[in-house]
Amino acid sequence: MPSKLAAAMLIMATVVLLLAGCETTQDQFTQSQVLVNQAIANEPAGNYFIGRRFYRKNYFFWGYIRQPRQPWRSAKLVMLNEQKMLAPDRQANKPGFDSNFEYRLQGYLSGQTVYEPASNGFYPEFVLTGYKLISNHPPQIFREPKAMDPDRLYIDKPQ
Fold first, then answer.
1. Which of 11, 39, 79, 110 has its CA 20 to 30 A from that of 123?
2. 124 vs 81: CA distance, rounded Å
C-alpha cells in the first residue's frame, strides 16, 4: 500500500513541476511583451524601419522588419539587397553574429520578391541604405524559447 501512495505522490509532484515550468516560460514571455510594447509605444514616427536579425544557418533571409510603432506580429521576413550597403554581419565578415540584434534600418521595400531556395518561399526584398544598432539584447519577440536556435529548421514568427 505505501508504494502505491509514494508512486501517486511522485506523479503529482512531477505534474506540479511540469506546470510550474510552463508557467515560468509564459511569465517570461509575458514580461518580455510588456517591455516590447513599451519600446514600440515610445518609437518616434518617421521614415525608417525596425529590424530584428533572424539568423538560420540553412536559410538566406535576413530577418524581420516592421514600421515604427507597429507590433512585431505585423513584421515581414525579408531578403536583404546589399548593393548599396552590406548587412552588419557581412560587413564584419561574421555571418549571423548579430542574430536577435535589433536595428533601426534605413532603406525601402523594393516591391520585388526574392526566392529563397531552402524554404522554397518568396520574400519581400528590402534595399538597405543604412543602419544603427538599437540593442544587442532586446526583449524576446518569439513565444517559442528555441526560436533563436540557428540550427532550427522551423521559421518562427514574432508575436
1. 39
2. 10
Between 25 and 79, where is the model more confident? 79
Domain chopping of the chain, boundaries: 1-159
The grid coordinates listed for 124 are: 519581400
H or E element: which one contains 27? Answer: helix 2-41
Q: Alpha-carbon dihedral of residues 131, 132, 137, 143, nearest 10 degrees? A: -40
Task: Return the C-alpha torsion angle 104, 106, 110, 111, nearest 10.
Answer: 40
CB 58 within 8 A of CB 153: yes
Cα separation of the two ends of the chain = 49
Model confidence at 138: pLDDT above 80: yes
When computed from its CA atoms, the radius of gyration of the chain, rounded to whole angstroms, is 20
- Give the span between the Cα atoms of 74 and 97, in whole angstroms: 25
Q: From the CB of residue 159, how many other CB atoms can be counted at a distance below 10 Å? A: 16
